[in-house]
Amino acid sequence: MKIRKAIIAVAGSGTRLLPATKSMPxxxxxxxxxxxxxxxxxxxxxxxxxxIILVTKWDKKPLEDHFDHSWALENDLEKAGKTKYxxxxxxxxxxxxxxxxxxxxxxGNGVPVLSAASLVRNEPFVFxxxxxxxxxxxxxxxxxxxDYEKNxxxxxxxxxxxxxxxxxxxxxxxxxxxxxxxxxxxxxxxEEAPSRYAQFGRMILNQDIINVLKRTPPGKGGEVWITDAxxxxxxxxxxxxxxxxxxxxxxxxxxxxxxxxxxxxxxxxRPDLKDFLGNYLNxxxx
Length: 286
Prior knowledge:
The mean pLDDT is 93. This protein has one domain: Spore Coat Polysaccharide Biosynthesis Protein SpsA, Chain A (Alpha-Beta Complex). It is an alpha/beta fold. α3 packs antiparallel against α4 and α7 packs across α8. The protein has ten helices and 13 strands.
């Protein structure tokens, strides 16, 4: 089946970015002049995703408003002749069909899938974490969707990390000579890591994974983890694959350092900013 839908988990509180996230969803923090969540949605739209289901909570109204039409703003921009900005704000509202679902009162990164399960029944879908960015020449979601259309593989995005960082992530153990996942080891000791491939928030899932997730008990920290369901699915004979980013890079934005790194990466890719920013960074590092 063609993949038409995506679920984005955006119900987190952004604790590590307080106080900036006290009254602003972390996914709305800007990467230069676009919110994090807009970059995620643009990646999905470039892959042909039509319906984007955002799993939210009570304080995410600014996020919902961002993807709606702003009639007063559009009218003001039109009167002022600011055509460039008018076209951009209209484009945001038209990138996809947006659906908003409140997250169930549980904790864990598997809960957004359960909360939106009735909207993706019996069809494959993309599952995304709303604070993970993938900056690539071709939309990484498009890379995954094209792989799925060729092979029918369920998969999760992975990226090699330095050896001294493997204990920070879920690390995949691969079947020898392939990208098929045998297991996922959560934050292994450096000397025990089965690979250097860290998983991140880009997945292609289906009803089979949902069915396993529904019977997955809370795990570490009393939370429902999507990786626990994937591990069970594999143990019960299912096939699940790791997908590397081609010509690009995964960047998390959930803490101050990585958020700043993401801003700099995107800014240095802008012709109108690159030269000035490069010179300025060289100046202040002296």
